[in-house]
Write a structure and sequence with these properties.
alpha/beta, TIM Barrel, 8-stranded parallel β-sheet, binds 2-phosphoglycolic acid
Length: about 230
């Protein structure tokens, strides 16, 4: 079954989250996951949807102002977390090492993990794509191996929020490379829209991590339906 995760980023407080959840029904044949901001997690969990956080700290508790731990998420009924999103890497100093630490802690506490990897345009154009992906994937793989609750999301940075989705050939190539390094499901992320959702049907694509198009019930359901139809 394909996994479709909606990464809401810094959108939707509890009120909008409740409205979305009341209107959203996950189509048959697909696993739909919502990833709201921290303050909206409880509202999403209460609605009965499957809910992941957008980040998680590696310590159980401690003097880490602004951070949230895995046991806190578990207590809330959250069942997983994204880690290492490129926006975290780009704007908040996330490194391969901290991504690995977050992954270890989340898995230890029974959470599922979507660990994000992906090259920038500059890295792709200078022929460093495989090197970058190898470093990012191996950081996680060396820490936890092909864990049954671990999924990798391949999100080329140049495709995120740009409307410039990777081509099927680029996705096939990157997913095969990632799977050769670590044998876990691989999601594609980066400008996934309902009209291009057929990309999810390709071999080696185990689902999608959707940003912008996950904010509207209609477009997120359409992507989920497209993924559910290819079983
Ligand atoms: P996008 O974001 O679908 O808006 O490109 C994807 C992501 O950042 O996970």
């Amino acid at each position: 079954m394909k996994l479709i995760a909606g990464n809401w980023k810094m959108f939707k407080g509890p009120r909008e989250t409740r409205e979305f959840c009341a209107a959203f029904t996950a189509p048959e044949g697909v696993e739909a996951v919502l990833c709201p901001p921290y303050v909206s997690l409880a509202a999403a969990v209460e609605s009965g949807q499957t809910v992941f956080a957008q980040n998680v700290h590696w310590a159980d508790d401690g003097a880490y102002t602004g951070e949230i731990s895995a046991p806190m998420l578990v207590e809330l009924g959250v069942t997983g977390s994204i880690v290492g999103h490129s926006e975290r890497r780009q704007y908040f100093g996330e490194t391969d090492e901290t991504v690995a630490r977050r992954t270890v802690a989340a898995l230890e506490h029974g959470l599922r993990v979507i660990a994000c990897v992906g090259e920038s345009l500059e890295e792709r154009e200078s022929g460093q794509m495989e090197l970058v992906l190898r470093l990012q994937v191996e950081a996680v793989g060396d820490a936890v191996g092909a864990h049954e609750r671990l999924v990798i999301a391949y999100e080329p940075v140049w495709a995120i929020g740009t409307g410039r989705m990777a081509t099927p050939e680029q996705v096939r190539e990157a997913h095969a490379f990632i799977k050769s390094l670590l044998d876990v499901p691989v999601l594609y992320g980066g400008s996934v829209k309902p009209e291009r959702a057929e990309l999810i049907a390709h071999e080696g694509v185990d689902g999608a991590l959707v940003g912008g198009a996950s904010l509207e019930v209609e477009s997120f359901e359409a992507i989920c339906r497209a993924a559910g139809a290819v079983q």
